[in-house]
Amino acid sequence: MKDIVENRRRLPLGKKVKIAFLAVEENGWLWTFSMGVYYLCSAIAEKAFGLADRHRRDKGLPGLNSAAMNKLIWESWDWSAAGEEWTPSPEWKTSVIRKILAPNVPEGAVVVEIGPGGGRWTEELQKRAARLTGIDISETCVEECRKRFAHCENVEFVVGSGRDLKAAGDASADAIWSFDVFVHINKTELAPYAAEFFRVLKPGGTGILHHGTVGGQRGGWRSDVTSQDMRSLLTGAGLEVVDQFQTWEDGGAEHEAGLYDDAITIFRKPA
Fold first, then answer.
1. Residues 127-138: what's their mean pLDDT?
2. What's the pLDDT score for residue 7?
3. CA-based nearest residue to 262, from 201, 157, 184, 206
């Protein structure tokens, strides 16, 4: 219904009144009243979000994206779907693996995955990795992944702070992978992460991050990070941004990085 909410702004008041009378004539009072309540509540919700967003920016508030908040939320999450609730379609996931994961995570690599969640991407990463370390702020996620991948000898899962990669050694990783994680991590936590990326990657190593682009202005429980923030923090830490994109094509189909103007940034530690 989001398209209806956005497009109603394009209709003048007089036309809206005519539409309301026609709606009653064609659908009856109950349906029309219900839709009227929906319109009113959605308008109030948009105003409330706008107020909260401005206050958050003015006061530098963490919103729902502090490390403590993320830990509480993701330890309470129902992980029965293993994170696949954020997969738009099987075709989309296959394309992510074929066009983004496989070209940037070499076979036999040492991989660090930030925020494995329920193991949505871990399953593919562990097939390629000589060794995979999954670091998650949620103890629930770590336990879920330990159970799911108990048969895999090349993986380990540890609880992290939400601000660093202490479980990974200096210059130890060929690749860093993180999806649907940095959309929930604010700039204050992203800055130390960028330094950690440089520390953990081997010279020539690659990182792949999925993140927001508009500083959370479209809602969706997103962090205050923008595309430029991500680029600036990575380059400021001595890393090279190889690519940054919001869509990609595969077999004639165009795929989006996320539902809220998200992007994927690929970066490299200089050799």
1. 98
2. 58
3. 184
pLDDT digits (tens, 9 = 90+) for 173-213: 999 999 999 999 999 999 999 999 999 999 999 999 999 99
The 3-class secondary structure across 19-44, one letter per residue, is: HHHHHHHHHCHHHHHHHHHHHHHHHH
Nearest 5°: the CA angle 245, 271, 155 is: 75
Query: CA 187 to CA 230: how far, in whole Å?
Result: 8
What number of residues does the chain have? 271
Contact 185, 74 (CB under 8 A): no
> Residue 186: is it exposed, middle or buried by C-beta count within 10 angstroms (0-12/13-18/19+)?
buried
d(CA 227, CA 232): 9
Torsion 68-70-75-77 (CA) sign: positive
Q: How many whole angstroms separate alpha carbon 80 and alpha carbon 22?
A: 45
Residue 2: is its pLDDT beyond 70?
A: no
Long-range CB contacts for residues 156-163, cutoff 8 Å, separation at least 24: 156/131, 156/132, 157/116, 157/133, 158/133, 158/134, 159/135, 160/114, 160/135, 160/136, 161/67, 161/137, 162/67, 162/70, 162/71, 162/137, 162/189, 163/67, 163/189, 163/192, 163/193
- pLDDT tens-digit map of 58-73: 998 999 999 999 999 9
Residue 142 structure tokens: 């770590």
Say which DSSP state 101 is in: I
Tell me the pairing of strands 253-256 and 247-250. antiparallel
